[in-house]
């Protein structure tokens, strides 16, 4: 009886220690691509060491202000506007051009075994670059579409194996983001055009 | 798991090493074990032979080809599956094999997520002599260190109410039939799957390269397996 209780205690301990859904942050057919240069939109795979990706996730179906992360002054600001979403982990482009493997992560805000919605943010840059520093430096940025994945339940006995995102991730393209001053100039141009047309 | 070819005993090499001073002879048996891999399936495997050079890094022991690009290994890390996930990136993608690398010993199980139908060939030598095992308290993976088809780990290895789970390759989950240890102190004879097919007091039947998941509800279980190739 003591052994049985011991087994149950171990099982409960493990379950409580890993009581959130787990995934493996990796891509395969959906590659990480970027413009060849800020003025050349020809796509190329981000070279090894030439960029990063960051995974953000939420319970499946959570609303997201899509394709707008770079309009916020920081990643924290973007997440504050999307309270159901949270950062999960990052990876460099480390396996081959356009291919990354960040290892296993626990999605803190998704129940073990439940489905999760996720988005991958990406940016160009070398070691130590973050989304915020890339945003401030004018690096190429990207935000993937919203994908859905299952997660593993590490609290079962035996524990579930982390679900690999490589089967659901559809890829991401990094591109130059117009600076606010550019938007302002474009707006002025439009206004001038409208004034000109009205006078003529 | 289907294992097509077992040891090619003496097929690759047979070394006879001699200790003249003590006049003791030991037969070093080097061979290979083929394991069939199915595309996009999780296989629960183990090293059926030991690397001749003693290097247990997976870059040395688990060698795939370009057809297996993006295959993964999931190893047990004491209390959960390792968050380090080696991925096979072949030369066609500019890779050199497993990244990152990892050390996996024989006598333990691990998952291999195969990307294609192929044959995985383990090459190495058959461990012989008094082979040491230690099943820790709690959760672990376990496998036979030697390439034989046998019930494992044996009728005398287990704490009462310990459990063993085997992997169902077809169903892609742990078999719904688990094994429980009931020792002679409780009137049992060892391992039992509840009287289901293949029930054996020595434990589940394992083929070379198979692994199992072990739930040890008692103290750590060190044991010795004596194995010699005659």
Please give a structural write-up.
The complex is a heterodimer of chains A (200) and B (230). Helix content of chain A is 24%, strand content 30%. Chain A is α+β, with helices and mostly antiparallel strands. Chain A has one domain. In chain A, a hairpin with a 2-residue loop joins strand 2 (32-37) and strand 3 (40-45). In chain B, the strands form seven sheets. Chain B has a five-stranded antiparallel sheet, with no helix packed on it. In chain B, strands 1-2-8 form a three-stranded antiparallel sheet, with no helix packed on it. Chain B has a three-stranded antiparallel sheet with strand order 3-7-4, with no helix packed on it. Chain B is globular, with a radius of gyration of 18 Å. Residues 1-22 of chain B have low confidence and may be disordered. Chain B folds into two domains: 35-125; 129-227, no CATH class. Chain B has one helix and 19 strands. Chain B is mostly beta strands and 230 residues long. Chain B has one helix at 58-61; strands at residues 13-19, 24-37, 42-45, 72-75, 87-89, 97-99, 110-113, 118-125, 129-135, 138-142, 150-151, 163-165, 167-168, 173-174, 179-182, 190-192, 205-206, 212-216, 221-227. The chains are: A alpha+beta (200), B mainly beta (230). Chains A and B meet through helix 1, strand 1 and strand 6 of A and loops of B.
Strand content of chain B: 35-45%
SSE topology string of chain A:
HEEEEHEEEHEEEEH
Strand order of the largest sheet of chain B: 10-18-12-15-16
Instruction: Give the N-terminus to C-terminus distance of chain B in angstroms.
Output: 27 Å
- Seen as an oligomer or otherwise, the chain set is heterodimer
- Low-confidence blocks of residues of chain B: 1-22
N-to-C SSE string of chain B, H for helix and E for strand: EEEHEEEEEEEEEEEEEEEE
**What characterizes the major β-sheet of chain A?**
5 strands, antiparallel
Rg for CA atoms of chain B:
18 Å
Q: How many structural domains can be distinguished in the coordinates of chain A? A: 1
Helix proportion range of chain B: under 10%
Helix amount of chain A: 10-25%
Mean pLDDT of chain B: 90
- Count of runs of 4 or more consecutive helical residues of chain A: 4
